[in-house]
Amino acid sequence: MKILFVCTGNTCRSAMAEGIFKSMVEGIEVYSAGVSTFSGGSASNHAISVCSRHNININNHKTTNINELDVFEMDLVLTATVGHRNDLKRYYPDLNVYTIKEYAGGYDDLDIKDPIGGDYDDYDYCFLEIKEALEKVAEKIGCNKVDVLIDLDENGYSKYLSNKAKKS
C-alpha cells in the first residue's frame, strides 16, 4: 500500500505526517508532497524540533512538489485541509483523496491548521493533532498498533518493549 500526505509547502504538516506515520507502521510506503512548493527544501526548524522531541527524525526530509509525483500510483492520498482535498479532486477527479481527519473519522473540523509562522507550541499542537488522527487511520487501514508489549526479564520483573504497527 502507498499513502501520500499533502499540504501546502511540504515543510510542516505533511512532512510531520509522513514522519509520524512511518514511525507507526511497517509494510506501507509513505510519502509527502506540497501543492505549492519547490522540491529539495527541508522541513521547517520547528517541525524538525517537535518531531525530534517525540523521537521521530525528519532531519533529512526534502520537500516535493505534488506535480513531480504520479498521484495515481498512490492507494490513498490524505490532505491537511478540505481546500487541499478539493483542489486535488478538481484536478484529479478519480483520485482516492480525503483529509486526514475525514478519513480518520470522528472530527467536526476536518482541517489541520498550518503552524507556519507560529511558535514551538503551535507546532507541537499540530504534531499531536496529526498523531491522534493518524492513529485512527492506522487502525482503519488494518494496522494492528501495539503501543507496549509487556514481558518479564530474567529476574521476573516487567519490562516494556515498544513495537511498530504492522500491516495485517
From TrEMBL:
Record-linked SMART domains: LMWPc (SM00226)
GO function terms (MF aspect): protein tyrosine phosphatase activity
Keywords, sorted A to Z: Hydrolase, Protein phosphatase
One of the Pfam families matching this protein, by short name: LMWPc
UniProt xrefs under SUPFAM superfamilies: Phosphotyrosine protein phosphatases I (SSF52788)
InterPro entries: LMW_PTPase, Ptyr_pPase, Ptyr_pPase_sf, Tyr_phospatase_low_mol_wt
Gene3D superfamilies: 3.40.50.2300
Domain Phosphotyrosine protein phosphatase I residues, every copy: 1-140
Assigned protein family: Belongs to the low molecular weight phosphotyrosine protein phosphatase family.
Descriptive protein name: Protein-tyrosine phosphatase
Organism: Methanobrevibacter millerae
